[in-house]
Design a protein that fits this description.
Length: about 260
C-alpha cells in the first residue's frame, strides 16, 4: 500500500521565518561584510565631519550630536536601498525562480527578505555610535533603543521598495541602478543629513518638508538627544511607518506577480 504525503500548505508566519533565516545565514557566516559595507559612512564621518566641525565653529561633540544621527540614516538609505540588487542577481541566475515554485507564501518571500535588513542596520549603527563616542558624541540610552527601532521600520520599508524595483527591472541592472541612484541622492541632499537646509532656497525647504528621510533624520537627532517631547519624533514615526506600509504593499504585490 502506497502512502500519500499531504501537500505542504503555505503559512505566511512560518514561511517568513524560514526566508528570514535563509537570508540572514550568509551574513552570520561572514559578519565582516557588515564592516566592509560601513566604508562609505566611515568616509563621511572621517572626512566630512571635520570640515563640518571647522565650518560650524562649535565643539566637536556638539557637531557630532547633529551629524551622527544623519550618518545612521545614511546607512539605511544606501544599505537597504541597494539590497534589491541581491534579488536581481538571483533572478539572473535562476535561484529566484526556484523559490517561486517552492510551497512558500509569495508574501513571505518579500517580508522575510525585508525583515533581514533590520540586523545589519542595528549592528552597523551601534558600530558608528561606538566610533563617534571617543570624539564627544553622546546618546541617551532610551533614545538609542527608540532610534534603532525607528531605523529598523524605515529600513524594512525601503528594503521592500528596493526589492520591488528589482522585480520591476528584472535583468536590466543599468535600469535598477539608474533609478536607485536618481532617487537616493536627491533624497539624501534634501534631508538636511549633511548640511542644514535653513539657509537653502524656499523651494528646497518646501521639498524637504515632504521628504520622509528629512523627518526620520530630525527624529533621530531628537531621540539621541533624549528630547522625547519633540514633535519631530512623531513626524519621524509617521514618515517611517508610511514608507514601511507603502514599501511592503508595493513589494508584496510585485512578488505575487513575479514569474
Amino acid at each position: 500500500m502506497t502512502e500519500t504525503t499531504a501537500p505542504v500548505r503555505a503559512n505566511v508566519v512560518r514561511d517568513t521565518k524560514n526566508v528570514f533565516v535563509r537570508e540572514l545565514r550568509p551574513t552570520l557566516r561572514d559578519p565582516f561584510t557588515l564592516i566592509f559595507s560601513l566604508l562609505q559612512p566611515l568616509v563621511f564621518l572621517g572626512l566630512f565631519a571635520p570640515l563640518l566641525i571647522g565650518q560650524s565653529g562649535q565643539p566637536a561633540g556638539a557637531t557630532l550630536q547633529w551629524f551622527v544621527p544623519g550618518v545612521l540614516v545614511m546607512i539605511v538609505l544606501f544599505g537597504t536601498g541597494a539590497t534589491g540588487s541581491n534579488l536581481q542577481y538571483e533572478m539572473m541566475t535562476g535561484s529566484h525562480e526556484r523559490t517561486l515554485v517552492a510551497p512558500l507564501s509569495r508574501a513571505s518571500l518579500l517580508i522575510g527578505r525585508a525583515l533581514k535588513e533590520v540586523a545589519p542596520i542595528v549592528v552597523q549603527s551601534i558600530v558608528i555610535v561606538l566610533i563617534a563616542w571617543p570624539f564627544g558624541f553622546r546618546v541617551d540610552p532610551a533614545g538609542l533603543v527608540a532610534g534603532l527601532a525607528l531605523l529598523a521600520v524605515f529600513g524594512v520599508g525601503l528594503g521592500a521598495l528596493s526589492y520591488a524595483l528589482a522585480l520591476a527591472t528584472k535583468d536590466r541592472e543599468w535600469l535598477f541602478w539608474g533609478v536607485q541612484q536618481s532617487l537616493i541622492f536627491p533624497l539624501l541632499i534634501l534631508s538636511g543629513m549633511l548640511l542644514p537646509l535653513d539657509a537653502g532656497p524656499e523651494w528646497m525647504r518646501a521639498i524637504a518638508a515632504v521628504n520622509p528621510v528629512n523627518w526620520v533624520v530630525q527624529a533621530e537627532r531628537a531621540l539621541f538627544a533624549g528630547d522625547f517631547g519633540a514633535i519631530e519624533i512623531a513626524w519621524g514615526w509617521v514618515a517611517a511607518l508610511a514608507v514601511a506600509v507603502v514599501g511592503l504593499w508595493v513589494g508584496i504585490r510585485a512578488m505575487r506577480r513575479s514569474s
